[in-house]
Amino acid sequence: MIEVNDPIDLSSLVMAKISGQCQCGAVRFAVTGKPVTAFVCHCTECQRQSGSAFGMAAWLEQAELHLERGQLKEWIRQTSSGKQMACQFCADCGSRLFHQVLGSSILSVKPGSLDEPSQFSPVAHIWVASKQDWVEIPPHCVQFEGNPESMGALMQAWQAVH
Ligand SMILES: [Zn+2]
Ligand SMILES: [Zn+2]
C-alpha cells in the first residue's frame, strides 16, 4: 500500500502486471507490484492448505489487487510467529489465491493461479524439516529448516538471479 506522503521513487521499481484466476473461473484478477521473491514452503499448514506436499508463494511489494470479477472470501489464521495472516479464496470453488500478513506491504500470490506461472520459479525452500521424504529440492535453491531468520534472505536469493 503506498501512502500519499511516502517519498517512493517509482522509477527504481520494476513493476509487473500479472493476471490469474481461480479453478472455477468465477474470480479473475490482475495484480501490479514488484516481485521480490518466490519460494516453496513445506510447513504442515501449507501441506494441509494445498492438500498436497507443499505450498508455493510469489511475493509482490507495493501490490495493488484488482478484482476483475467474482468474490473473495477471507479466513484469518495465527502464524507460528504470532502474527495474523489473511487467507483469501474464491467464494465459489475455494481455490486459495492470496495470503497477506495483516499490516504487511507484501501480498503473497499463489503462483499456480496465474496465467503465466513460469515467471515465478522458486529460488528457496523453507520448512524443509517437515518436507515429505520423496520431494527432491533442486540444487540451485536455498534451503531453510524452518522460517529463515529474516525473510530478507528469501528476497536476496531472488535478487541473485533476477
Ligand atoms: Zn472459483
Ligand atoms: Zn507454509
Q: Write down the CATH class.
A: Alpha Beta
- Which homologous superfamily in CATH is the superfamily? glutathione-dependent formaldehyde- activating enzyme (gfa)
Mean pLDDT: 92
The set of bound ligands, ions and cofactors reads: zinc ion
Count of alpha and pi helical runs: 2
Spatial separation of the terminal alpha carbons: 23 Å
| Strand segment tally | 9
Overall SS class: mainly beta
Write the element-wise H/E pattern from the N-terminal end onward.
Answer: EEHEEEEEEEH
Q: Report the helical percentage.
A: under 10%
Beta-sheet strand percentage?
Answer: 35-45%
- Major sheet attributes: 9 strands, mixed
Report on the architecture of this protein.
With about 160 residues, the chain is mostly beta strands. It has one domain: glutathione-dependent formaldehyde- activating enzyme (gfa) (Alpha-Beta Complex). Helix content is about 10%, strand content about 40%. The chain is built from 2 helices and 9 strands, in the order ββαβββββββα. It has helices at about 45-50, 150-160; strands spanning about 15-20, 30-40, 55-70, 70-80, 85-90, 95-100, 105-110, 125, 140-145. Strands 1, 2, 3, 4, 5, 6, 7, 8 and 9 form a 9-stranded mixed beta sheet that branches. The longest helix has 8 residues, at about 150-160. It is globular and about 40 Å long. The model is unreliable at about 5-10 (pLDDT under 50). One zinc ion binds near residues 41, 43, 45, 46 and 55. One zinc ion binds near residues 41, 45 and 127.
